[in-house]
Amino acid sequence: MKVFDCGHCGQRVFFDNLRCGNCGSALGFVPGEQAMVAFDVQPDGLWSRLGPEGPAQRPCQNYALENVCNWMVPADDPTPHCLSCRTTHIIPALGKPENRGYWSLLEQAKRRLFYTLLALKLPAPSKAADPQHGLWFQFLEDVSPQQRVLTGHDEGVITLNIAEADDARRESVRAAMHEPYRTLLGHFRHESGHYFWDRLVKDTSWIDEYRRLFGDERADYEEALKKHYATPLADWASNFISAYASSHPWEDWAECWAHYLHMVDGLDTAAAWGLGLTHPTNDGPPLKAEPVDPAAASIEPSLIAQWLPVSQFINAMNRSLGLHDSYPFVVLAPVVAKLDFIHRVVSAAGRGQVAMNFAPPPEAAAAPAETQPPAEPVTAELQPSETP
What single string gives the DSSP state of each residue in 130-192? Predict the structure, then answer.
């Protein structure tokens, strides 16, 4: 992620900030500009830009009314929510005070996902805008031991158990499942991988190469998961990024997709901060961090020469602070080939060289854009029947 400055006073600000700590200006992220913009909020509620001029903006409804967002919407956009929030279909039941905090953390992680998708030029419209190919998130909680919410993806609907926003509960699950890594952002990236498999690979010219690298996704999914949990693949590390990736080709893709987004955002951040390593390897030359080039023919040079030493440095720093490794993974040649495939798919999609599965259905295409209903999230307590 890039480094942000306050447009009014030039002070360093961060992606989740609401106000500049130096001059007190209200801040809002403008997706179309990929920038944090400073605003003066008038008594009548009008947000006026401070600093460089640009298109008029207004705060997302979840910023203005709910305080769980800090993104802006073009002033002439009829949709009340920002690009990220308009994909939220069901929010947690707000009758419980702690659930508002969980909702805020969920939206915060989702905005980081959307930041990277925007940078990669990967569209993620809401189902209100594209019912057939769009995306919706539903944030649900367990209502009883018999009604457990499973995080997952189904036909463009991504469900997340809000317990994943509780650090202590998520860590207990991570330890119980013997997972080296489990984060809220990681969940969003992994589940978005399932969504984009449908959008970028399914029924496209990429499918044959995908099957050569990841396996045949037509294998029975439920049976594959049962086998994985009963008898996990002993030597998974030689061909997969994680044990779970070895369960089924769909999960292999989703795990690798998440790691590709980790690498893209991680190197973007390292480069934005001017990270340089004098001793990235025992006898190698100094390294200056560079972002992933979306036009590069292959991801392998960035992965080997950039990401591996940077991630090793981050892990070493974490150990010095008594923390777990931020990136506890080993990337071997078969995984490099899979990540390289994902890079080529994303790169071709971002350049418009390969059609993506986003065409609206005929009835939606025939209707004027302004007649499409806006996405209005509902609270989970209004739809108990939707809780798995």
Answer: -TTT-BEEEEE---BTTBPPPPEEETTEEEEEGGGGSHHHHHHHHHHTT-S---HHHHHHHHH
d(CA 61, CA 242): 39
SS3 225: helix
- Nearest residue to 308 via CA among 264, 343, 263: 263
State pTM to two decimals.
0.88
Half-sphere exposure of 330 (CA within 13 A, CB side): 6
Rounded to whole angstroms, how far apart are CA atoms 218 and 205? 17
The answer to whether 23 and 32 have CB atoms below 8 angstroms apart is no
Regarding beta strands 152-154 and 136-140, do their DSSP bridges make them parallel or antiparallel, or are they unpaired?
A: unpaired
> Do residues 370 and 83 lie in contact, with contact meaning Cβ atoms separated by under 8 Å?
no
Quick one: tokens of 185?
């952002």
Which pLDDT tens digit goes with each residue over 286-306?
999 999 998 888 988 888 889
Tell me the H-state helices in 231-332. Answer: 249-272, 300-301, 308-320
